[in-house]
UniProtKB/TrEMBL annotation:
Pfam families: TsaD. One of its GO terms (cellular component) is cytoplasm. It is an enzyme of class 2 (transferase). Residues 22-315 form the Gcp-like domain. One of its GO terms (biological process) is tRNA threonylcarbamoyladenosine modification. Binds 1 Fe(2+) ion per subunit. CDD domains: ASKHA_NBD_TsaD_bac. PANTHER family: TRNA N6-ADENOSINE THREONYLCARBAMOYLTRANSFERASE (PTHR11735), TRNA N6-ADENOSINE THREONYLCARBAMOYLTRANSFERASE, MITOCHONDRIAL (PTHR11735:SF6). Substrate binds at L132, V133, S134, G135, G136, D165, G178, E182, N280. InterPro entries: ATPase_NBD, Gcp-like_dom, KAE1/TsaD, Peptidase_M22_CS, TsaD. This is tRNA N6-adenosine threonylcarbamoyltransferase. NCBIfam families: gcp_kae1, T6A_TsaD_YgjD. The keyword Hydrolase does not apply.
Length: 351
């Protein structure tokens, strides 16, 4: 079946056409230009932009896939979690299309979209272990099915992407911070500064990243006090040491998540990492080594499918479609929608 996917839960207006594991088109219209001057995503501006741009994003996807609305079999749309105005824009558009075309409507959890992406890109079998690590999220999930997730733990405060962004700000590097901090860390000495690795002594998979920025701020100010500023090498060493701290926390907690996951003796054990921070090569190397050591297959979807996009929504929609899930006009936009409570509300609104 050919599924049209729509995504508008944050600051990307996206539309995609997916058939099975084939992505026929994936259009992502970013809005960073609209929000740049405000230093963050402005919900009202985002919502209006989604409402204005969804139509164009859909047309562009149909053109790229050389198909028409009549050929699609169902419409999948992000119904949460996210900025409510944007989610409402997407859900209204999807309802309009579903009604006008008389096609099934399927509400998709945005996080489920991210979590199912390794099935789209690498065909992973259930259950697999997922580390979702981005600017807004950091959690371990055992993915058992399109509506069946077990959360093993996650950050209790900041997400690692946020920590990278704050670090870049503190050091005067460009945004988004991840790529600029990673670049600056090249040639840095990761052992020069010992930044904290919080919660490593605590059982379980919970993590904390908010203390890192305080430690980093203190270190920066100490360097400024001592020598009036940071040299190029100081900055490299700070970035490398920061990146190593994030890697160590994530790798160590992943080790614990793997141990819980392997207790279930999965047939083809695998770890998938997704989210913007998954682009980080130091982190990837650490996770890859850990997987080699513990006998797991390691996968990381290509970045364009790791960050927000509609192909993941269409794909998640296609798995739900195959399992008979349908929503009706009562589908509502949900600002909050934790993954491990996925089954109940979805089944409740399905036919
Ligand atoms: P979410 O979609 O989870 O609500 P988001 O839209 O902020 O959050 P993504 O687009 O998945 O998340 O990822 C963006 C984040 O990833 C930013 O915080 C950015 O700094 C970080 N990031 C991108 N590239 C890298 C990198 N190479 N190393 C570390 N972090 C990175
Ligand atoms: Fe996302």
């Amino acid at each position: 079946p050919l599924i049209l996917g729509l995504e508008s839960s944050c600051d990307d207006t996206a539309s995609a056409l997916v058939r099975g594991q084939e992505v026929l088109a994936s259009v992502v219209l970013g809005q960073s230009d609209l929000h740049a001057e405000f230093g963050g995503v402005v919900p009202e501006i985002a919502a209006r932009a989604h409402a204005e741009r969804l139509d164009g994003a859909i047309k562009q996807a149909l053109d790229e896939a050389e198909t028409s609305l009549n050929d699609i079999d169902a419409i999948a749309v992000t119904a949460g979690p996210g900025l409510i105005g944007g989610v409402v824009s997407g859900v209204m558009m999807a309802k309009g299309l579903a009604t006008g075309l008389n096609k099934p409507l399927i509400g998709v959890n945005h996080l489920a979209g991210h979590a199912l992406t390794p099935r789209l890109t690498d065909g992973l079998d259930y259950p697999y272990l997922m580390l979702l690590v981005s600017g807004g999220h950091c959690q371990f999930l055992i993915v058992r099915g399109p509506q069946d997730f077990t959360r093993l733990g996650g950050t209790i405060d900041d997400a690692p992407g946020e920590a990278f962004d704050k670090t870049a700000r503190l050091l005067g590097l460009s945004q988004p911070g991840g790529p600029s901090v990673e670049a600056a860390a090249q040639g840095g000495d990761e052992t020069r500064f010992r930044f904290p690795r919080p919660l490593l002594d605590r059982l379980g998979c919970d993590m904390s990243f908010s203390g890192l920025k305080t430690a980093l701020l203190r270190q920066r100010d100490q360097l400024i006090d001592e020598k009036g500023g940071l040299t190029e090498q100081d900055r490299k060493d700070v970035c490398a040491s920061f990146q190593a701290a994030v890697r160590d926390v994530l790798v160590e907690k992943t080790r614990r998540a793997i141990s819980a996951y392997l207790d279930e003796t999965p047939a083809s054990p695998a770890l998938a990492v997704a989210g913007g921070v998954a682009a980080n090569m130091t982190l990837r190397a650490g996770l890859q080594d850990l997987c080699a050591e513990t006998g797991l297959r390691f996968t990381a979807p290509p970045l364009r499918l790791c960050t927000d996009n509609a192909a993941m929504i269409a794909y998640a929609g296609s798995e739900l479609f195959a399992r008979g899930k349908r929503d009706d006009m009562s589908l509502s936009a949900r600002p909050r929608w934790p993954l491990d409570q996925n089954a109940a509300p979805l089944l409740g609104s399905g036919k």
